[in-house]
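Re: your question from the hallway

Yes, I did run it. Sequences:
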Amino acid sequence: MKDPAVNVNSEIGRLKTVLLKRPGEEIENITPDTMERLLFDDIPYLKIAQEEHDAFANTLRDNGAEVLYIDDLAVDVFKDNPQVKTEFLQRFFEEAGYGIGTTHDALKDYLTTFSERDLVTKLYAGVRRNEIEFCNDSLHDLAGRDAANPFLLDPLPNAYFTRDPQASIGNGMTINHMTFKARRPESLFTEYIMKYHTRFAGKVDIWRDRNHDTRIEGGDELVLNDHVLAIGVSERTSSKSIEGLAKELFSNPDAKFDTVVAVEIPHNHAMMHLDTVFTMINYDQFTVFPGIMSAEGKMNIYIMTPGDNGTVKLAHRTDLAATLKEVLGLPELDLILTGNGDDIVAPREQWNDGSNTLAIAPGEVVTYNRNYISNQILREHGIRVHEVISSELSRGRGGPRCMSQPIWREDI
Ligand SMILES: NC(=[NH2+])NCCC[C@H](N)C(=O)O
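Structure:
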């Protein structure tokens, strides 16, 4: 890729550009009834969540990163290309189940009165049934739907976890088919931004697009170095997607990756992605939640490398530290346990993303201040830790890595 717009060849190279989404009105559309379906365990207080998020963004800026907001990029695209906006809306409606019919027409008429800025805000916030007055006489729109759902278009409260709808890998990206309906529209924004925004159009390799039916999310996709990826086999990412991506990367002459390490983790809400239990924070230092291993310290790991004629070779491993040494060519490494591995502290701090550290340079990370024991341990291991306030943001079950999508990291 000549003149690439994305450059991420590690988890730890100094962060130069990052994509965020400030929590917005969508948070105020979470209700006790919809919370579980919307993948929240509680309802954050938006005002404080925004203050915390602004502090997070400022921490990244103060340390040399340019911050892009995904909604600003979408507004740019729609302002520059009115026909793209129309096409996007049609896709958005289709994916919500309103490709044609009375509801489609009513939504379209309503939303085309919005400015580009208000439209993007609205698409994230959701559209309530009682916002639009129309007589729904379409069986297609009524039958088989959840009449109790107050929303015609559901809110997208997880959008502030910009890590997941896509993943930057080398000079390209995967644009992800996400697992739950509650998040799927998020990556449609990415698709349109990468295709039409002047900063990205034609300057990003798309390793895998969202038009697949197997699931993958960015929280599972870790770039360990310029030729090795680690990908979680998790609640959110299937083995099929990992195989598909490995085949694509191994056969695409523009991709330099020759090793994909598939790491099996428990399938549950507290550990929905690999990055909630495992992150890379220095050349030879990693955070890990001990709960992903058996009592004997074992787990299932598969090293995938290119085989003959476009096939993929698999090698099974059970020891995380040994596998990392093997694929990264390291003589020694330091696995730092969440909450110092304590039976009570480790799961408590993991629950609030104590393992979800965002490296902004080798050995320098951003973490939530509430995980004070894990932070202390990181410091004892020589890591420079920038703590950010975290009472409300953490209620969405994601931390600093989940809330950030690196677009550019310095090569190391
Ligand atoms: N990369 C991550 N770990 N993201 C966390 C996402 C949390 C979000 N509530 C979800 O369930 O999807």
